[in-house]
């Protein structure tokens, strides 16, 4: 059964500039987005900054009205049945904001329990369970202003789950969290699916999407450019393999020279401290390693390796296509 | 009904905690009304007229309440917007009115504190003993001031859902309000064309009721007008709240970006 259904969603923002002569500018943030999310599915929405991910989520959670198109959450229209949609969804976003800093974690959860209509008799037990789930038991009486970003993020998740929503919208929940915190967060998100929740997740971290999502839609400039399982997306890319060469002090001319090798589709340079890692995206069946090394004559070279394209490679190619 | 009352009570208690747990804000709430009262009494003290001091003393007591409730209420939702909680509050299945009522009542509590603190300050520092002919009527009038200012603040607060800069409306009202509501000068001394504006603010009537009850007159007519006006603002705010939330969803003004 479909939990979330978006049909040709569009959203235009109008801004005005100038003092005396006001000029209106229109920006189409979302341009005809359509997708379905089945119940119990973890659906990822990936895209660069400004691609329209948050705008899409905000239309689905009733914070923004679509300019056109329709969307339904658990069968309820996001424009006409606002209250019904709000009762059934949870919303969690990343970053430091979204909590009452001067209140303790417990008071934050109490406050939102009241606003989200958690029955008084169930509140205490529910808050206790959620604090346990997000690993904040024992810290609940501390003020949020003293919390680390990871703790805040976990508290956000607890807040989003207070009223036991059937569908959860997670907008970049792991942004700015350290690797250990992010790993714990991924485990928490995975556990939500185990208990039957439907999740729409946006993230910039490809390994996170690869690990968690059942299906992914890649959004670019307000349009969905690809949709499928992580495996489907990896197969979509034209790259056959990726060659990574560690170098020290490689020049721009040498990088450009590598791009001219037959079978090399693109070359990217990743700075890692003193080292530059050259990432060569190669066509299927192309053997480029020897040719590349010969063109790096005079450059100090470290490890050389070949790997299969990752979801990140697929993502970069999808959002870079013109 | 029981659940609604519980919700309002819990939200009131937690919002009061939000307002009172900051040392900086707390210090401002403690000292600002006292400074306003000091300035007013020093100016009026020059005339050495007990009637004038009584007028200024009562006005200064309500002046702090005006600042605490009317001015701060208009920046309430702007603070929520900055904190990133406004979207979460709007996305809740609870109506905006139910969110704002306990918040504005929490501000009323601070407003009532300022009245008591100012009266004590006037007595201890300036030796001004306010003549209160009827304490029950005086207290009733002060409570009506707090209630109707909460309703007026509720009205100012909902406009912030739609307009990001509406907090400046409250700030702009602070000092003109001292004149318009008759805190420091009688409303009758204002130009005629300003009178309708004065009369449209419930606090003008509340101030008059406070003066009447302190002077031994009947405050009931002023209290009635004050309560009717305050209720009208509350009803208007409830209606506008829904419209403005929809407008904010249309114009994307709930978030900072």
TrEMBL record, chain A:
Boundaries of every ABC transporter domain copy: 4-246
InterPro entries in the record: AAA+_ATPase, ABC_transporter-like_ATP-bd, ABC_transporter_ATP-binding, P-loop_NTPase
Protein name per UniProt: ABC transporter ATP-binding protein
GO biological process, one term: response to antibiotic
UniProt keyword annotation of Transcription present: no
Topological category with respect to the lipid bilayer: Peripheral membrane protein
Record keywords: Antibiotic resistance, ATP-binding, Nucleotide-binding, Transport
Cited SMART domains: AAA
Name of one Pfam family that matches: ABC_tran
Subcellular location field: Cell membrane
